[in-house]
């Protein structure tokens, strides 16, 4: 700013403008004496936390600012899209000034809506805007591989719920993903057909969480001798043949899978669909069928010729 | 502080045997879900090492076939968001077109450390009663290149300043000095002169290729490392070491306030490039002499010792003590190996999978005791005690090794 401009501003008579200015906030923030508790879906809370992390702000404070912004702008929240059937399983507690809460109630009354719903809708609207400005994709995607894996291992197969071998686990999850969202698949052609490293990562995560047979959740303190030995037992010794790994949920894992299944109607449906796919595909000739149905994913396979030969022989036999 | 370099390392993440975890960003991209799960299950603070230096030369991140691994491709994509940088196209200094893009890159690297693990929870995680904490790193680390020349020095300074601005809080700054510049006093000064002090919470030094043996046998290199540590510590900012060992821990009294080490006990001087897999060598860490030795030698040093003598001379870690209590000699477990035949008819011996796991615990616990000793006592006292112990276990060879260290510390 030039010194002339600064002088002219200092010399001006501001008394009229002064009266029109909004009241300044208190120099020392007043303690927030009221609170609003919103029930929100888990996915919504996760989205708020993601945006808060990207903005380096506490998520409660961010949600409060959106709510206050909604009140200040005197606009109705944007209508929600397709109503989600996800249960409002999480709680979002926002501390407020009593005045703000009173103001919210008045505004909700004017709009003839419950004030909790109005607050939630304002937060959702602001969240959508923030996600857009930050380039965060919040559109519904395929369920994560880990969730699909837990549902798969919770469904009954022909010989119990376990899946024997990493290749079979990979192929079953590949088929499920192809049926659910082939366009956004994360599988690619690799040495033994379709492969996705997320599958191995998810299996390892379930083991670390203590959801798979033989696994215990990690203890809080230093490991005991028995715990250290347990990490060795699952590895090979000198004379062991390489075992085919078996993937099965333990009691904790099944309980977690059941919680997931019951968490929403969508997950109930997903479980039923995964179960039907397992019934259809978890057969001894799974590998051959995958190679036959999805040839694009077998281009780099080291065993393609072997499988093709087997398929040809079966076809000629059928004829 | 323990560095997580591969998925298998996550099994060993436990409070009480480490103070903090530092996760390599390439590992985080390799197995984000299991890394997040392991971190959520502990109360340990963690940091993400952005490992930007891996992108400095293609041979440092590409696999043996010359291709970019998927985890590096994903990591690179996150780092160059909203820029024109083709990070996997070639050497990094040639692919970043201007200073503005370096600054965006630095901000992206910080954003990655802040938010990568927050994106992880799935519906299953959120419904889990033991879901645990949100994963916020305890500190943000500025991206850094290996300080090969003045070009990298200038970029490193730019990256630190841009990171400090983007972090809006003090940041940790790695300083990666290659051997040729470490040995040259003028070059050392040049590197130090480009490392800023404002907005910095800690320095983390790393001298790739400098093994423990080299530090002990080459007085010039030892003094050069000491000079870097001393100069940085004199600025009043804590100094850590990104790939420390016993000798580095012994520099506690001279300015090293934090030591990061990984779970591998064979000292390779920590090269910059991504380490390839392969058969493990039959070596084990022997705390009694403070370095690792081949299985046969370890066997001859400790197999005949009973529980008390073993604890006194060879190792007093909780794994070895537990093994004796369970009625087994720890070396029967630690030194288990097998013969692996190759396709060409040759073959070699390698530790079994379970011996590797148990050696990892033994090494972690032993390192923990070493770090505690150097934190609690003057380094020369610790080394004196260790010399006596080494003499009782192995005689003069290992004593002279430790004596060299004591002499160097006395004269430092």
Notable traits:
heterodimer; A: 319 residues; mainly alpha; Arc Repressor Mutant; 2 domains; two-stranded antiparallel ribbon; 14 helices; 55% helix; B: 412 residues; alpha/beta; TIM Barrel; four-stranded parallel beta sheet; three-stranded parallel beta sheet
Please sum up the structure shown.
The complex is a heterodimer of chains A (319) and B (412). Chain A is mainly α and 319 residues long.
Task: Explain the layout of strands and helices.
The complex is a heterodimer of chains A (319) and B (412).
Chain A: H1 3-11, H2 15-20, E1 34-40, H3 42-55, H4 59-72, E2 90-96, H5 98-111, H6 115-134, H7 145-154, E3 163-164, H8 166-181, E4 188-190, E5 193-195, H9 197-208, H10 225-233, E6 246-247, H11 251-261, H12 265-281, H13 286-293, H14 304-318
Antiparallel strand pairs in A: 1-2, 3-6, 4-5
Helix pairs in contact in A: 3-6, 4-6, 7-8, 7-9, 7-11, 13-14
Chain B: E1 2-4, E2 21-24, H1 25-30, H2 32-40, E3 46-49, H3 58-61, H4 70-79, H5 92-95, H6 99-115, H7 123-127, H8 150-167, E4 171-176, H9 179-182, H10 185-194, E5 200-206, H11 212-217, H12 219-233, E6 239-241, H13 246-249, E7 256-259, E8 283-286, E9 291-294, H14 295-302, H15 307-314, H16 318-325, H17 330-334, E10 337-341, E11 347-351, H18 353-376, H19 379-394, H20 396-411
Parallel strand pairs in B: 1-2, 2-3, 4-5, 5-6, 6-7
Antiparallel strand pairs in B: 8-9, 10-11
